[in-house]
């Protein structure tokens, strides 16, 4: 039987690359998205054409009732959950801290942090041996911004990723004895649409010379780290971080 994986924000960018690679590795893939149904369905069709199993689910993962519905739908369609990738993340226009208002901060922290707690909660309820589950693995898609702080661009986003790192550490220890491993990847400067939300679609091109490898990263390079952390190859690793940053 195929293992089941849920990837939040799987319709584009790093999430989409993770969905394709997970299918290649034999997972049945649940692809969550917010609005871009066409992109999500395209990935589902492509996976099915290759003989894989996939389905797309619209849900705003910062909303508790929508997260509950999402996991219930996945239970119904795929059975037991084995792996969760908390990949959803947003950023907003580049600003200094003194320009940020509360509504922006609420959007950033609700989408990037609360969603991660809510989805992790549902995953633990299903995977933990404490709740009758058979174990599993969670990977959080954080950012190197947690370490650099993103001054002058989006300190709010960086702080949300810092919170995600603390969640990774705390939850990993909380459930380590219950069959669940919790790890994170911390990418930087990956070619995806996210930079357009910051007001600079070509940001990676501008900053790539500051990367020791002198190039931006591809979503597939992040996906490979995610799939490794989820796999049995990483069976003795929990609460760890893999930086996918070209040496930054
Ligand atoms: P992206 O290309 O902007 O894709 C974002 C994905 O999240 C889309 O699938 C989008 O769905 C979905 N989404 C957004 N808000 C959602 C919500 N409330 N509920 C459900 N889905 C939602 O992003 P990306 O660059 O691949 O980033 C993925 C993760 O990597 C994020 O956590 C980001 O912070 C992190 N990261 C990225 C970089 C980078 O350089 N790209 C660097 C470090 C960390 P729709 O398609 O429906 O809009």
Task: Describe this structure in a few short sentences.
This is Short chain dehydrogenase. The chain has 248 residues and is of the alpha/beta class.
Written overview of the protein:
The chain contains nine helices and seven strands, in the order βαβαβαβαβααβαααβ. It is α/β, with parallel strands linked by helices and 248 residues long. It has a single domain, classed as NAD(P)-binding Rossmann-like Domain (Rossmann fold, 3-Layer(aba) Sandwich). β4, α4 and β5 form a beta-alpha-beta unit. It starts with a strand and ends with a strand. 48% of the residues are buried. It binds NADP nicotinamide-adenine-dinucleotide phosphate (NAP).
Enumerate the strands of the largest sheet in spatial order, edge to edge or round the barrel.
Answer: 3-2-1-4-5-6-7
Global outline: globular
**What would CATH call the architecture?**
3-Layer(aba) Sandwich
Mean of residue pLDDT values: 98
Structural class: alpha/beta
Order of helices and strands: EHEHEHEHEHHEHHHE
User: How many beta strands in the DSSP annotation?
Assistant: 7
Compute the number of structural domains: 1
What is the CATH C-level name? Alpha Beta
The amount of beta strand, in percent, is: 5-15%
Describe how the helices and strands are arranged.
Layout: E1 4-7, H1 13-24, E2 28-33, H2 37-49, E3 54-58, H3 64-78, E4 83-86, H4 102-127, E5 136-141, H5 145-148, H6 155-175, E6 180-187, H7 194-197, H8 203-207, H9 219-230, E7 241-244
Parallel strand pairs: 1-2, 1-4, 2-3, 4-5, 5-6, 6-7
Helix pairs in contact: 1-9, 3-4, 4-6
Family: Belongs to the short-chain dehydrogenases/reductases (SDR) family.
Keywords: Oxidoreductase
InterPro entries: NAD(P)-bd_dom_sf, Sc_DH/Rdtase_CS, SDR_fam
């Amino acid at each position: 039987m195929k293992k089941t994986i849920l990837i939040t924000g799987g319709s584009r960018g790093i999430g989409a690359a993770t969905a394709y690679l997970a299918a290649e590795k034999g997972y049945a893939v649940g692809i969550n998205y917010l609005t871009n149904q066409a992109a999500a369905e395209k990935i589902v069709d492509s996976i099915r054409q290759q003989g894989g199993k996939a389905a797309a689910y619209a849900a705003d993962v910062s909303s508790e009732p929508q997260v509950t519905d999402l996991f219930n739908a996945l239970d119904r369609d795929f059975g037991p959950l084995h792996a969760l990738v908390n990949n959803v993340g947003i950023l907003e226009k580049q600003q200094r801290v003194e320009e940020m208002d509360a509504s922006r901060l609420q959007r950033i922290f609700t989408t990037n942090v609360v969603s991660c707690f809510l989805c992790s909660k549902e995953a633990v309820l299903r995977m933990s041996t404490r709740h009758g589950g058979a174990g599993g693995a969670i990977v959080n898609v954080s950012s190197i911004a947690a370490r650099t702080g993103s001054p002058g661009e989006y300190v709010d986003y960086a702080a949300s990723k810092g919170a995600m790192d603390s969640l990774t550490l705390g939850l990993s220890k909380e459930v380590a004895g219950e069959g669940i491993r919790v790890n994170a990847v911390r990418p930087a400067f990956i070619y995806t649409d996210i930079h357009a939300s910051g007001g600079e679609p070509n940001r990676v091109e501008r900053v790539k010379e500051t990367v020791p490898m002198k190039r931006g990263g591809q979503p597939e390079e992040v996906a490979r780290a995610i799939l490794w952390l989820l796999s049995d190859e990483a069976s003795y690793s929990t609460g760890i971080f893999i930086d996918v940053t070209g040496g930054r």
